[in-house]
Design a protein that fits this description.
571 residues, globular, alpha+beta, binds 4-nitrophenyl 6-deoxy-alpha-L-galactopyranoside, 8-stranded parallel β-sheet, 5-stranded antiparallel β-sheet, 10 helices
Amino acid sequence: MEHQNKIIKTALDDLFIERKFGIFIHWGLYSILGGRWNGKTTPYISEWIMLREQIPFKEYQTLASRFNPQDFDAEKWVELIARSGAKYMVVTAKHHEGFAMYHSKVSKYNIVDATPFGRDIIKELSDAARRHNIKFCLYYSHDQDWYDPNGFGNNWDYDPQKQDFNVYFERKVLPQVEELLTNYGEIGMIWFDTPFSIDKANSRRLVDFVHGLQPACLVSGRIGHDLGDFAELCDNGVPSTVVDTEWETPLTMNDSWGYKIDDANWKSAQTLVRYLSGIVGKGGNCLLNIGPDKDGNIPVQSIDNLNAIGRWLDKNGKAIYGTSHNPFSLDYNWGTLTCRDNRLYLHIHNFDDNKIVLKGLKNRVNAVTVDDRPIGFTQSDKNNEVLEIALNRSEQDFPLIVCIEAQGDIEVDNAIMQQGDNSVVLEASVAANLCEKSRLAINHIGATDNWIDTDELLGWKFRIDEPGTFDVSIVTIGARADGDPATPLEWEGGHQITINVADKSLSGTIVKQVEKNNPTNSHFPFYITNMGKVQIPRAGEYEVKIKADNVVAEKRLGFTFRSAVLSFVSQ
Ligand code: JFZ
């Protein structure tokens, strides 16, 4: 057991400290449809089309006879992945549709036996990955299987009352996982997903089964019952502050995972690099998705984005690979940080000043560089070490990496402090829970889950160095009530909230006064309510507390609180 734990620890360090960035590939029979069925576009993610459109398996399975991706070239795909700077890849060996993208002896419903193409793409990709030093990993839908009569999820062909999950689990899942972990060399990780119905005993069995076959193969957090080797965040989820365990964000380039003809909502390369940098700053890995089409071509937008990310990483990879998360308690308005030994990397995502002010670094600084060229800085020893860095850069440089070379390993004061613009950001994720019987948890997008109870009370202590008048606002965020990613975000307002700032109480109703871009996650915008002004006349330690006097919870979302912000107005 102890030996096994050591093996896992080594594998975790390799993936989550050294590699940081991976590519997800969603490819299956759904790629042939590209999100269209009977002349109409299926809503949201395209690989769910069989369920969305309730396509009978007898009809859906005929797609296999049309699967003939003549342009598929494993070497070309992996070359592109390597060029993007990714260090691992995860390929769908079987998605919810139930079709094996490899030569399976367990089920004829597979790419070699059931298609005119007849090639094992998992074999070709695993060989190519090894040639390029990319850690090869697999996705396997262990719970949902809409083809198997006993798999979970297909209630349009099968009667759920008559299904026996154990039969599916014994006769398909275990033997297919065995094939995957036996026939394709070392597998870095297996990405199980949507544990909607599996019980704890079966999750446990599957974890042990994987480790028995390949002790160093990591198991994703979505195995169910918290039994994974690392945490998998919700789709496109990014936390608000550092999460100090191994975790990964699966990220889409547009909105769908599988190829979708009508999804043109592409993120730019700059946005994607900001995601990567923001995620690594908070201590996570970024698994960025591509959805090749029916012919085996990767969408041109994805190719362009991967090439651009690769160029950025060629120059700035030292601020990503092998680093540890932001040592401060919060991100800054201008971006995030990573560090390694005596180096602190500032990741500047955006800024509208000509200098960066960094408070709380305890080390003396030897040099500050951009692209290995020294730039000007001043460091005072009063006022808790304020470091001022002169910057004058154009928007296209962002994220811009600034490297601080300090004397000795980086040490910081990570109290909550004013930002460079003197505002104070109080994130739910770093609040103290002041209600004894609190059940409040923070979700994968940094907001409170299920704030419905009026007994809840959150608080923060922080320091003010620049006193003055502040506008107080509350940031809330949308959520998905039923956990289904294929529905739009929902939001509830109308809650009566009281926020106590430096002993002054402000009360108000939560409404969507302003919608603002969430700087680290374009999928979840901020909704802002202004609560009024407070005066903080002197420097010193202060406290903020927030409670709900009344919560509206018709959609069972409640008060989806992300942060309270004190914006500096004047001295
Ligand atoms: C899952 C898959 O369903 C999806 O197709 C894709 O592979 C993505 C990476 O992972 O996304 C889901 C789907 C449903 C839930 C969570 C994640 N859910 O309802 O909780």
